[in-house]
Design brief:
Two copies of one chain form a homodimer. Chain A has 156 residues and is mostly helical. Chain A has helices spanning 5-19, 28-35, 39-51, 76-84, 91-94, 106-123, 127-141, and strands spanning 55-58, 64-67. In chain A, strands 1-2 form a two-stranded antiparallel sheet. In chain A, a hairpin with a 5-residue loop joins strand 1 and strand 2 (64-67). In chain A, helix 1 packs across helix 7 (127-141). The longest helix of chain A is centred in the C-terminal third of the chain and has 18 residues, at 106-123. Chains A and B meet through helix 1, helix 4, helix 6 and helix 7 of A and helix 1, helix 4, helix 6 and helix 7 of B. Chain A binds a DNA duplex (30 and 30 nucleotides) through residues 4-6, 27-29, 38, 40-41, 43-44, 46-47, 50, 57-65.
Chain lengths: 156, 156
DNA sequence: GCTTTGTTGATTATTTTGGTCAACAAAGCA
DNA sequence: TGCTTTGTTGACCAAAATAATCAACAAAGC
């Protein structure tokens, strides 16, 4: 049940773009550097988002990519779907007709429930949610003076 | 996020054993035939359950395997754990210390929530639950006479 | 001791993963 | 115009995981 690097890298790349929302174009090489993703690999990760109209790209000097939709409008379910395809744990959950015994198969029902549980989390989380969490985490780590235990330890 | 055949076959094999609970030993070749699992492969799938004390095995003529615990006592989470290891979508969710930046990583938090959602389903489902669902499904398919639409079509 | 069953470890083919590389296309600037 | 900078595309490849298979072995029962 592991997510491949495609899913992990891709999500980080989209989060990086969301963090730069409103700042114009962001270059792939900068995303690659910040998120520690090989640039030639990142290029392939971006493709499906451009095709899906979620990312706009511009070539040439000072070119780059940026989100076409507000981070609030981009659900994680959509991101993972584009990167990894369906998150269904088994194929027959996507395509019941391909599996003639599916109407008697109880294990299939369970995998279907697992899929719904995963969907529940991914559907209800947007890139904007991630941005806000990140901002909150960074604020906490910045060591507020009046706190007894200095949070700066976190940045070590 | 796909389950491998290990997880699917193994779950079916355990369900098969649960369906024969109380009937003594079941031979691997019968499980293999009913569940359409290659016998030499099934042998390897059974091993971890024997090691974990969930299955008892006896060699020799009329030997076979059987559950050591009541199907009610065997959770799907345990089954999948033994077959596939942790269901965490990313490694850093299992082992936060291995990933020094985890306390700032918001994507990790989301994968952790996904893991919890999956766990929720698998922890709350036992083999006995699957047995009961199966029984109920078969009863429905057996075409109750007073029903207008004959459910026998399902068995085609 | 022979047969039937499960156990174990080695081996293998195929597929998926995780990239890399090179040729290309468009945009901007001298 | 031609050069540089960026993204695009498709071919390619190595490594790892998957999904088995096979053979030698061990125990149990007749």
């Amino acid at each position: 049940m592991r997510l491949s690097t495609k899913g992990r890298y891709g999500t980080r790349a989209l989060l990086d773009l969301a963090l730069h929302w409103g700042e114009g174009l962001v270059q792939l090489k900068d995303i690659a550097r910040r998120q520690e993703i090989p640039l030639p690999y990142l290029e392939h990760l971006i493709t499906p988002f451009v095709a899906a109209g979620i990312i706009k790209s511009t070539r040439g000097p000072q070119g780059g990519v940026s989100l076409l939709k507000h981070p609030q409008e981009i659900r994680l379910s959509e991101v993972i779907q584009l990167l990894e395809g369906s998150i269904a744990p088994v194929e027959c959950v996507n395509n019941p007709k391909s599996y003639p015994r599916s109407n008697l198969c109880v294990t299939r029902d369970i995998w279907s429930e697992v899929k719904k549980a995963i969907d529940g989390v991914l559907e209800s989380t947007t890139l904007q949610d991630l941005v806000e969490r990140q901002t909150r985490k960074e604020a906490t780590a910045r060591c507020k003076v009046r706190e007894v235990v200095c949070q700066l330890r976190l940045t070590k």
